[in-house]
UniProtKB/TrEMBL annotation:
This is Putative restriction endonuclease domain-containing protein. It holds the Pfam family Uma2. InterPro entries: Nuclease_put_TT1808, Restrct_endonuc-II-like, Uma2. It comes from the Bacteria.
Length: 190
């Protein structure tokens, strides 16, 4: 079980050999050690959003997962040669064929990333373009300190449209479900 070296391009097959108990992501073949955020605000936001979505999805075909949950963003194949493996804070998958015992293989319908200082650049830039290219329909970037959410929706051209910006005074509609609205006062109540 060797840990990654920066000069090599890594795949999901490599990822599977790394020590359990450590969290890693691979973006375009580059590994990133994921230290889980222990900040109370981060945990509160993830927990509240997950609870809203989980309760809404009871009895429906879509499923919601929270980290650690592997999402293998595929290019053309379903093999272990995948070079993009992420562990978003929250993932919604509506196609059960994309789920297996290892996580999600392919693009989820929605991803939520709650930023922390150590992940800010990656969430805003690298993952933004990665999720856009992979066809993730809705991508939320949540800023716990600012109590705001940027909501990106994939356009017909395959590019994210200008974000909708929400603050703690707003209710936010979950773009893939017309009838699910989340009161951000509850989410940012800390």
């Amino acid at each position: 079980m060797s840990l990654p070296k920066e000069s090599k391009k890594y795949t999901y097959a490599d990822y599977l050999t790394w020590p359990e108990g450590e969290r890693w992501e691979i973006i375009n073949g580059v590994p990133y050690n994921m230290s889980p955020s222990l900040e109370r605000k981060h945990q509160k936001v993830v927990g509240e959003l997950f609870a809203y979505i989980h309760n809404y999805l009871k009895g429906k075909t879509c499923e919601v997962y929270n980290a650690p949950f592997d999402v293998r963003l595929l290019d053309e194949n379903v093999s272990d040669d995948v070079t993009n493996v992420v562990q978003p804070d929250i993932v919604i998958v509506c196609d059960p064929r994309k789920l297996d015992d290892k996580g999600c293989k392919g693009s989820p319908d929605m991803i939520v990333e709650v930023v922390s200082p150590s992940t800010l650049k990656r969430d805003l830039k690298e993952k933004f373009y990665l999720y856009e290219k992979a066809g993730v329909k809705v991508y939320w970037i949540v800023f716990p300190d600012e109590k705001t959410v940027l909501s990106y929706h994939l356009g017909e051209d395959g590019k994210y449209k200008r974000p909708e910006v929400y603050s703690e005074e707003d209710n936010i509609k979950v773009g893939i479900f017309e009838s699910l609205e989340i009161d951000l006062k509850d989410v940012f109540d800390y």
